[in-house]
């Protein structure tokens, strides 16, 4: 295991991650890609913060891949491999489709000043983040047959990603931004009340569920709902 968790090897992967994230940062800052500009707009300081978070994020969540690629163990394919690959494929598809749907929605002049509520966005308010979480948890599940001893600590990667998106730089920021822009709209408040924050569900199902169930099992956290200074959503 010493070679797998070798500090020089991990440092090299960190440098590579920082390098290609820097390229990503420059390209997205110039082209104003959706996820970046949703968070930072044209503020270079916020873009830099986004980049730092993104670099730490990518290096951390990719640790299962790093460990698997460095390991000399070669177990036969197990059910966990197949489950993990399926999770990865579903997550990638959901994230890609959601991003494309939102891009198409925002590029339509008739949708100017509206929030995206079409396609996957009608089943969850953040399908792209659901896809990203599902994708990286799939990577972890697929790497599980190779892990041994302290290598299981790579579970901190998808945990870090999940906590980051749920509580820090993902959903909370976008929820706050949307509430400020659309919070006075009755249609928006209805959309938010009947649409799951993360886990895709039909609006007719989610809207009929009691609030305590949404909070306890479907991640409708108080953090995502407006305080006294904004219009109430529920």
TrEMBL record:
Membrane-spanning segments: 12-31, 43-62, 82-98, 129-147, 153-174
Keywords recorded for this protein, A-Z: Membrane, Transmembrane, Transmembrane helix
Highest taxon in the source lineage: Eukaryota
A Pfam family matched in the record: DUF1295
InterPro entries found in the cross-reference section: UstE-like
Gene Ontology cellular component list: membrane
PROSITE patterns recorded: S5A_REDUCTASE
Name under which the protein is recorded: Steroid 5-alpha reductase C-terminal domain-containing protein
Record organism: Triticum turgidum subsp. durum (Durum wheat)
């Amino acid at each position: 295991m010493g070679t797998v968790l070798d500090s020089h090897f991990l440092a090299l992967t960190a440098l590579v991650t920082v390098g290609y994230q820097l390229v990503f940062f420059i390209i997205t800052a110039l082209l104003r890609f959706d996820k970046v500009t949703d968070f930072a707009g044209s503020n270079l300081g916020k873009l830099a913060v986004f980049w730092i978070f993104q670099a730490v994020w990518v290096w951390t969540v990719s640790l299962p891949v790093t460990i698997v690629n460095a390991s000399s163990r070669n177990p036969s394919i197990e059910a966990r491999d197949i489950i993990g690959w399926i999770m990865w494929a579903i997550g990638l598809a959901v994230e890609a489709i959601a991003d494309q749907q939102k891009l198409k929605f925002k590029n339509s002049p008739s949708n100017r000043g509206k929030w995206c509520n079409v396609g996957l966005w009608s089943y969850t308010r953040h399908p792209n983040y659901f896809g990203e979480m599902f994708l990286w948890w799939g990577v972890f599940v697929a790497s599980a047959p190779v892990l041994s001893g302290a290598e299981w600590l790579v579970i901190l990667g998808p945990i870090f990603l999940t906590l980051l998106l749920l509580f820090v730089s993902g959903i909370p920021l976008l929820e706050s931004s949307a509430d400020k822009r659309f919070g006075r709209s009755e249609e928006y408040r209805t959309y938010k009340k009947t649409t799951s924050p993360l886990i895709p569900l039909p609006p007719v199902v989610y809207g009929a569920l009691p609030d305590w169930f949404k909070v306890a099992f479907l991640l409708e956290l108080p953090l995502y709902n407006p305080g006294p200074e904004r219009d109430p959503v529920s």
